[in-house]
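FAQ: What does a multi-protein file look like?

Like this. Sequence, then tokens, then the next protein.
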Amino acid sequence: MNDNMLETLDLGELRYKVKFTHEPRDIRERCGLRLADVARACGCATSTISHWETAKHLPSRRLAVRYIELLRDLERRSGGQ
């Protein structure tokens, strides 16, 4: 995901990215983070992140903002590879 997309990403687009591209999980894994690391950063349960990454559930707007901000930061740190 590039910064421009993350800045304008809405819940529908997040669901699409998770369900069809797995980008959020790929970003997390590329950065060497566990589900528990992301859950702690977002303030939710590990199972919640797992459900998001498998498109079983969508985050609330509040948690989606945290999740997207975290993904944006991870992308910047990893150089967007």
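And here is the next protein:
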Amino acid sequence: MLPFFGPSSTLDAIALPVDYYSDINPHLKSSVRDKLYFFRTTDTRLRLLAAESFIEKSNDPYIALRESYRQNREFRVYDGDPPSEDLDEMLEDDMFDEFFEEQPETEE
């Protein structure tokens, strides 16, 4: 987490300067820019109020916030169609087969 920016990843932190310079706000006149900042702040606060009750009802607010951020991030990365994680596929993983095979006894 980055202070004042909420949940984020390293990629988000690297993208901050790019986002700042690609935003139209710094290039507008001060009166228009201030109104736009006000409306963006109000909109962000309104969206966060809806999430506040969800976080308060959870047993562990940190984990709830982290997992909701990760799910939202994955949803945005895959343009609204993330791949489904089938439990059967995860359980049939062959990665640990070698570990669980019986080891031949060595003679000392």
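Q: Is there any per-entry metadata?
A: Some entries carry free-text notes. For the entry above: The chain has a mean pLDDT of 77.
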